[in-house]
Design brief:
Metal_Tscrpt_repr_sf, Methane Monooxygenase Hydroxylase, Chain G, domain 1, elongated
Amino acid sequence: MSLEEKKVHSCSVCQNEGENQGERTSHHDDKTIKELVTRMNRIEGQIRGIKGMIERHVYCDDILNQISSAQAALDGASRLLLEKHMKSCVKDQLQAGDEQVIDEVLKTIFRMTR
């Protein structure tokens, strides 16, 4: 995909920041980035804990409960990122007249709800 084709799928701020790398980027504020990184660190810890439980032969139901908790945490991070994406990148692309972003977001939402 050429840089011009990639620009079609990126908001104006993302396009300008991504020109040097040749790929799309987000432009979330520092608070959002910090919140997402904090969530990912917590989830990473949960996953390491689950791995340890498996290695220690912890009762299956207890492990399954922890896996469910980690999945819920990932779902929460996905919802937060989707919300921020809709309020920034998608909004900017729609205002610029790029309605293809609607199909992109729909595919993402459908994938998230499988």
